[in-house]
UniProtKB/TrEMBL annotation:
Main location (coarse class): cytoplasm
Lineage: superkingdom: Eukaryota
Keyword Endoplasmic reticulum: yes
Entry annotated with the keyword Nucleus: no
Gene: Trappc2l
Record keywords: Cytoplasm, Endoplasmic reticulum, ER-Golgi transport, Golgi apparatus, Transport
Protein name as catalogued: Trafficking protein particle complex subunit 2-like protein
One cellular component (GO) term of this entry: endoplasmic reticulum
Gene Ontology biological-process entries: endoplasmic reticulum to Golgi vesicle-mediated transport
Length: 129
């Protein structure tokens, strides 16, 4: 339904800018999904790749089989990150999200408040920085 379940940004002083970037990128994700059409349904790999670059950031996307969208915004000056590393980060994120969904105390659609998910996201962010 295109509302965020979890947003994490570092540094926090530009958090509103990141919220805007994430929300605008959801439209690009929808466009890519509709452009792929039936081919996306048949694929097991749901990595959408680079959605769009901006002056300061690169925005990447990933969609699960249940149409949950993951968006990652990376500083464009970080040239050390390759496409396969971004793909593996999305897989880790997807696996952690699956673990949250398996929790009987989590109501699907609620904001994600999980210490394990936070720790996984923090470790990924430290790896990138």
């Amino acid at each position: 339904q295109n509302y965020p379940l979890y947003i994490r940004s570092v540094p926090t002083e530009n958090e509103l800018k990141f919220h805007y970037t994430v929300h605008t990128s959801l439209d690009v994700v929808d466009e890519k999904i509709s452009a792929m059409g039936k081919a996306l349904v048949d694929q097991r790999e749901l990595y959408l790749g680079l959605l769009y670059p901006t002056e300061d950031y690169k925005v990447y996307g990933y969609v699960t089989n249940s149409k949950v969208k993951f968006v990652m915004v990376v500083d464009s000056s970080n040239t050390a990150l390759r496409d396969n590393e971004i793909r593996s980060m999305f897989r880790k994120l997807h696996n952690s999200y699956t673990d949250i969904m398996c929790n009987p105390f989590y109501n699907p659609g609620d904001q994600i408040h999980s210490r394990a998910f936070d720790n996984m996201v923090n470790s990924m962010m430290m790896q990138v920085c």
